[in-house]
């Protein structure tokens, strides 16, 4: 079942904001929240993340039905990549070194910003690349 392309982009916009606030404040609690959001999106798909729920309940009813769809697997893979960076960032902020937390959070922020601002999903592109490589080698 395909998903509304606007949902993951909305989630990326919220993620961009959250991660920017994490970089400004250095809050491990806020990064823990984002890590949970990534984990839910990775486990159940972007529609199961808190931002997917917010999009479905508050945003989509105001902007109308979708006209463009995409496969759910690439955004779900992107959530998994975001989760990995968020976990590394959380370890950096909580255990140290702090530069690791800053660097991992900044990488996740850059990827989220690209998706939110330009509709370019790095994690989705990684998914497609991995699929191409694994299909050829099988």
Walk me through what this model shows.
The chain is mainly α and 138 residues long. Helices cover 80% and strands 3% of the residues. The chain is built from six helices and two strands, in the order E-H-H-H-E-H-H-H. The chain starts with a strand and ends with a helix.
Given as residue ranges, the uncertain stretches (5+ residues, pLDDT < 50) are none
Estimate what percentage of residues fall within beta strands.
under 5%
Overall pLDDT metric: 95
**Count of separate DSSP helical elements:** 6
Please estimate the helix content.
over 70%
The tally of beta strands, per DSSP, is 2
Structural class call reads: mainly alpha
Cα-atom Rg, whole angstroms?
15 Å
Biggest sheet: strands side by side, in what order?
A: 1-2
- Distance between the terminal alpha carbons, to the nearest Å? 26 Å
| Major β-sheet profile | 2 strands, antiparallel
Order of helices and strands: EHHHEHHH
**Rough shape?**
globular
């Amino acid at each position: 079942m395909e998903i509304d392309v606007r949902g993951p982009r909305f989630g990326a916009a919220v993620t961009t904001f959250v991660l920017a606030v994490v970089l400004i404040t250095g809050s491990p609690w806020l990064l823990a929240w984002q890590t949970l959001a990534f984990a839910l999106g990775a486990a159940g798909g972007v529609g199961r993340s808190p931002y997917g729920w917010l999009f479905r309940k508050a945003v989509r009813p105001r902007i109308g039905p979708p006209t463009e769809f995409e496969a759910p697997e690439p955004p779900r893979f992107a959530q998994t990549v975001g989760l990995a960076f968020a976990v590394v960032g959380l370890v950096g902020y909580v255990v140290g070194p702090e530069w690791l937390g800053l660097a991992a959070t900044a990488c996740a922020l850059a990827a989220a910003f690209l998706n939110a601002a330009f509709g370019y999903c790095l994690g989705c592109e990684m998914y497609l690349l991995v699929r191409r490589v694994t299909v050829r080698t099988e």
